[in-house]
Design goal:
This protein is mainly alpha-helical. It is built from 16 helices and no strands. GO terms for molecular function: calmodulin binding.
Length: 421
């Protein structure tokens, strides 16, 4: 949740505004007569009892200062006024101060979120840098604004959150994943995994991102969801099984449900390992999404820290490439470097020529051995054919001689018989 303890970094950033504890407790410090708002030097708690008017005055001072700083807190008082005359800045300030005084959870947490978004989120995220990064990703991947699905307006009435959402969409579009908000779209961990993979594939390879197999037909999807069609098949393929839980459904196949939980645990464990290497604290966990549902505000802060780390690494890599290219060009103009490069080139050419000679000799030897083998086989075949032909001719000649001899004997016997007569 956005409510932070006194040891959290968000609280320390808020306390820099002038040692302001959480709003409901800060009202117990007595405000002096001097104007404190320009320096935000709120007094420390003296331990003396205070009346309700003094606490209300402190809360009112805080809210008016936030209005002067341009922090959008009008949404905390939405629908609270029946008369348009009371809905001005002064009426909004009084309403929020009363909410802080009576420790209204919605107003207190909303004010804390606005403080965190204004003083911490904007410190970690530069909207113009994100817009330039989105344009770069579109050029690299060949996307158009229509393919990314840009939306009009702002997310949470905050330009920074909208820029973060657009950055996530652009980075995840090449992987076929739809990102619509910071809650259910991040619940299975795939979006965060693909964000890190898009910038640091060696840190988080795509093979480590797990997801249960999706159904191929509507009937199969209905069987897995208990016969109820919570979402369309196209939406399920774009968002994954989180789309079913987002619509209030559940996976009725026990094996598939257990596999889905294991995949979510694995994805978040992978995210935490990569985040630790990037210096991003583990603010989200699989248990939060599986048990309590997604925490949208915590997800925005985590994505902001992740964007800061990834864009910083990207800038450092680009700077390293520019420096290396400059050094190469600088060294190439030095005479000693040119002579050394020429010697290296000559040595490489000699090695290449020697390798080509060895390869040519080896190919010639292989061809020669193959030629002798074929010639030997041809000689054997020719000798066999000649022997077979000679044998056939000899057999024919022997057969003809036998026939002639038989004919001669027959004719001689007939002649002798006629002479005797």
């Amino acid at each position: 949740m956005i409510s932070q303890s006194s040891d959290s970094p968000v609280y320390h950033d808020i306390s820099r505004l002038g040692s302001v504890p959480p709003p409901a407790r800060s009202s117990r410090s007595q405000a002096p007569d001097a104007e404190l708002l320009p320096s935000m030097a709120f007094p420390q708690n003296t331990g003396k009892p205070m009346d309700e008017s003094q606490m209300r005055n402190n809360c009112l001072r805080l809210v008016r200062f936030l209005q002067q700083q341009g922090i959008g807190i009008q949404g905390l008082a939405a629908g609270a006024f029946t008369c348009p005359r009371d809905s001005g800045p002064d009426g909004v300030a009084k309403f929020i101060a009363e909410g802080l005084l009576r420790v209204d959870q919605k107003i207190t947490l909303g004010l804390l979120w606005q403080l965190a978004a204004h003083y911490k989120l904007r410190r970690h995220v530069d909207v113009r840098s994100l817009e330039r990064e989105v344009a770069r990703l579109r050029r690299v991947t060949g996307q158009t604004v229509a393919e990314v699905g840009a939306t009009s307006g702002t997310y949470f009435n905050d330009v920074t959150s909208q820029a973060l959402l657009q950055w996530m969409r652009t980075a995840c579009t090449p992987y076929g994943i739809s990102v619509d908000e910071f809650s259910w779209s991040l619940s299975d961990g795939r979006v965060l995994c693909f964000l890190i993979h898009a910038y640091m594939p060696e840190l988080l390879p795509q093979s480590s991102i797990t997801s249960p197999e999706l159904p191929s037909s509507v009937d199969e999807m209905a069987r897995m969801t208990g016969g109820a069609e919570y979402v369309k098949l196209e939406t399920l393929k774009a968002k994954g099984w989180t789309a079913v839980y987002e619509m209030g459904g559940a996976i009725h196949d026990d094996n598939l449900a257990a596999l889905y939980k294991r995949c979510v645990d694995t994805n978040f464990a992978t995210i935490h390992a990569a985040g630790e290497a990037l210096g991003v604290p583990a603010m989200l966990s699989a248990e939060d999404y599986l048990n309590d549902g997604p925490d949208e505000l915590a997800a925005i802060l985590y994505v902001a820290l992740l964007a800061e780390a990834l864009l910083r690494l990207t800038s450092e890599r680009r700077a390293a490439y520019v420096i290396m290219e400059f050094l190469r060009r600088r060294l190439s103009w030095r005479p000693g470097y040119m002579r050394a490069s020429l010697e290296c080139f000559k040595a490489d050419m000699k090695r290449l020529e020697a390798a080509s000679t060895i390869q040519s000799f080896w190919r010639m030897r292989c061809q020669r051995c193959r030629y002798f083998t074929v010639r030997r086989a041809a000689h054997l075949l020719q000798a066999f054919i000649r022997r077979w032909v000679e044998r056939q001719r000899l057999q024919k000649e022997v057969h003809a001689i036998v026939l002639l001899q038989a004919g001669a004997r027959t004719s001689g016997w007939s002649s002798r018989r006629r002479m005797r007569r």
